[in-house]
Amino acid sequence: MDPISIYEDLRQKIIWLELKPGCTLNLVELAESYSVSRNPVMIAL
Prior knowledge:
Layout: H1 3-15, H2 27-34, H3 38-44
Helix pairs in contact: 1-3, 2-3
């Protein structure tokens, strides 16, 4: 999965409040959930 796809998915989760305002995003957990290394997630953020 590329960084743009991750960005778009995270954006949709924020818009639909699947990610609550003020929540802490864990880089390692996000990378695992998208089955990628941390770099694409860091770029997406």
